[in-house]
Amino acid sequence: MTDYKNKLIELLKGNDVIKFGDFTLSSGKKSDYYVDMKKAITEPEILECVAYMITESIDDSIDKIAGPALGAVPIATATSLISKKPMLMIRKEKKSYGTSKQIEGQLDENDNVIIVEDVTTTGGSLLKAIDVIEDNGGNIIKAFVIVDREEGAKKTFEERGIIFEPLLTISEFKQYL
């Protein structure tokens, strides 16, 4: 494991981001753990660690860093600051006023884009944001997620031909504990 990965695990553990117990997820499904990523993405040290991990894994061919609202925007912002690459914010739906945009930031035709997310289960919500970028002329090169719950996201992205790179899987976190 990289130093950054060990640091990320320590930070998530130290900030009580992954809790074990009896939880009901937003999907209604029961789980023996909960990943409180909103807590994580409000901590500067965690964001900095995540931004460095993602920046290390991208190259000069990447034009933009995208993050769907709300949870991924701080991750995209931190990564943009470290990588010096412009960012895009993807709204859940088009604005009904003003410019009616669903993408904030400048996406040019054929821009190579990485997309970031805080946590994935099946990957469905992240795919919606990917569709928005692709429908507007961008090329998704890779999808990064801080924590993958390992409940189908990897398969979802493989089926779409998108490289999926979790910074940490729930198995790795549990193994560390």
- Tell me the strand percentage band: 25-35%
CATH-scheme architecture: 3-Layer(aba) Sandwich
Tell me the name of the CATH class.
Alpha Beta
**Shape type:** globular
Q: Give a short account of the largest sheet.
A: 6 strands, mixed
State the end-to-end distance. 14 Å
What number is the mean pLDDT? 93
Strand order of the largest sheet: 5-4-3-6-7-8
Protein model, in words:
By secondary structure, the protein is an alpha/beta fold. It has one domain: 3-Layer(aba) Sandwich (Rossmann fold). The chain has 7 helices and 8 strands. Helix 5 links the parallel strand 6 and strand 7.
Set down the secondary structure blueprint:
Layout: H1 3-14, E1 18-24, E2 30-35, H2 37-40, H3 44-56, E3 64-68, H4 73-83, E4 87-90, E5 103-104, E6 112-120, H5 124-135, E7 139-148, H6 153-160, E8 163-169, H7 170-176
Parallel strand pairs: 3-4, 3-6, 6-7, 7-8
Antiparallel strand pairs: 1-2, 4-5
Put the structure in a nutshell.
The protein has 177 residues and is α/β, with parallel strands linked by helices. It has helices at residues 3-14, 37-40, 44-56, 73-83, 124-135, 153-160, 170-176, and strands at residues 18-24, 30-35, 64-68, 87-90, 103-104, 112-120, 139-148, 163-169. The protein has a single domain, classed as Rossmann fold, CATH 3.40.50.2020.
Features:
6-stranded mixed β-sheet; alpha/beta; 38% helix; two-stranded antiparallel sheet; 177 residues
